[in-house]
Amino acid sequence: MLGFSNGVHPKGRKTLTAGEKIGRGPEPDAVYVPLLQHIGSPAVPVVEEGQRVLCGELIAKAAEGLSANVYSPVAGTVKGVVGHITLSGKKADHILIENDRTDERAFLPPLADRSRESILARIAEAGIAGMGGAAFPTAVKLGTDKKIDVLVVNGAECEPYITCDHRIMLEFAEQVVKGIRLCMAACGADRAVIGIENNKKDAAAALAPFAENIRIKLLKTKYPQGAEKQLVYGCTGRTIPEGALPADAGVLVVNVHTALAVYKAVEEDTPCYERVMTVSGGAVEKPCNIWVKNGTPYRDIAAFCGGREDCARIVSGGPMMGEPVFSLKICTAKGTSALLFLNEDECVSKKAEPCIGCGRCVQACPMGLSPVFIERAAFDKKYEEAAVYGAEQCIGCGCCSYVCPAKRFLVQSVKLAKKVLKGWREKERAKNNGEGAEKNG
Ligand code: SF4
Ligand code: SF4
Fold this sequence. Notes:
alpha/beta, Rossmann fold, six-stranded mixed β-sheet, binds iron/sulfur cluster
């Protein structure tokens, strides 16, 4: 079994929801639909205050460049474009829609053919963005002009607690595989490999009857098995060089939920306006997997699932890579895979101690970095030094923080260094482009 180096084995805690069939989530009185639910530029509103919209109606169009369409998740009345709090702590534009609970629906027109161009155009039209959490616009990814021979499908779901992809593979096996075939047609791959951690053998068995000529690869249960480079290596044996993308190695990666969204867009004319989410943790009454409409306030989910008073921390996403939730006014988006309500026992103590030089963070890092040195460099604001230690290669997996006996904020420091370096690189590029333009002019 091919496996990546290092990584960690956190407690899975998946039994809380793995046996829970996907149900319907809350029906919010109002949704705040973010215009930026994807990597790239915010979509541009095409509706006006007071306008009635149907569930599945286009409300914001993809901007120029990297962006994605946004659809209404409810039937109701547009109350306007409002600034609303996001996970980053900053406000961003959202379309506020009052739900009239009629559930009247709009659909995309039936797709005339299944050519590569038509499938790509439909994926773009439906506003699909990577539903594993990255939220990269899927049509842009699949429409690459690089030669792709293998599509790797991410069914690893290595983050603790989260089981929405597992349930999707069990309950929508045929649709997921049909979605995979559509993605293959869209990127020109003639092979596909579905990577699934070997703690989900039932999911592999559910997909198998539909997956003729598609390889299902059981992978070791180890975190971060679902990270792009680690998954590509586990499924194909190919390594992606530093600074390169999977497409440079002839590979594209899509998540199983994204494949289901592609199926729904092409075969059921349904755009992307809702997703399956895991709601879990020791401080929630009803851990579950539910369909949640984009733009649903977290407080509606907390009320629906019974978030308890002994909740010590709320996390959007998984405990390793997720973001802390400081306001239940924040709303779900296309990439929101989970909402966790954790009790005191499930949270790590926040008090950081001095580093004891044990080297565990180095041993755990799946990218072969030295988080301890990057942290020190970041603390001293020596970002060039952080770059030398490979800060820009960090995938934010959190393995370093997880193993650190001193509970140092390693992942946060490395991410900060990466962010600063990204800003520097962008400034450098802009400066060079400007100079180039001056010379040419
Ligand atoms: S430095 Fe980055 S890639 Fe390495 S373990 Fe920490 S978070 Fe993961
Ligand atoms: S794991 Fe923590 S204590 Fe050990 S070397 Fe790394 S930063 Fe220091």
